């Protein structure tokens, strides 16, 4: 399978694993980040305070949960974060 397709399918799989009826609770979203992000340099970038703020911003419809649309915003943020951490580590 093509790499991009594979990566997207993995993201959908992760979403479905943590979601219940199309939404991930904030607690489950935090658990997901704990379990699915292994890189300590990336984790170090995300303080508890920054995470709370980011989650508040991600929750666009203010229902206290993360739907697929909001999840894609979060993934976009993580892609940028990991891109910059890798760039730093390569230097
Ligand atoms: Ca929401």
From TrEMBL:
Keyword list, A-Z: Calcium, Metal-binding
Pfam families xref list: S_100
Domain EF-hand: start-end pairs: 46-81
Stored Gene3D superfamilies: EF-hand (1.10.238.10)
Keyword Ribonucleoprotein: no
One GO MF term attached to the UniProt entry: calcium ion binding
Keyword Membrane: no
InterPro entries in UniProt: EF-hand-dom_pair (IPR011992), EF_Hand_1_Ca_BS (IPR018247), EF_hand_dom (IPR002048), S100_Ca-bd_sub (IPR013787)
Name this polypeptide is given: EF-hand domain-containing protein
Species for this entry: Labrus bergylta
């Amino acid at each position: 399978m093509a790499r991009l397709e594979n990566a997207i399918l993995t993201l959908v799989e992760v979403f479905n694993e943590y979601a219940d009826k199309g939404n991930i609770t904030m607690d489950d979203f935090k658990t997901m980040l704990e379990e699915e992000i292994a890189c300590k340099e990336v984790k170090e970038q995300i303080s508890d305070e920054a995470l709370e703020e980011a989650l508040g911003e991600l929750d666009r419809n203010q229902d206290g949960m993360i739907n697929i649309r909001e999840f894609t915003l979060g993934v976009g943020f993580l892609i940028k974060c990991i891109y910059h951490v890798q760039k730093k580590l390569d230097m």
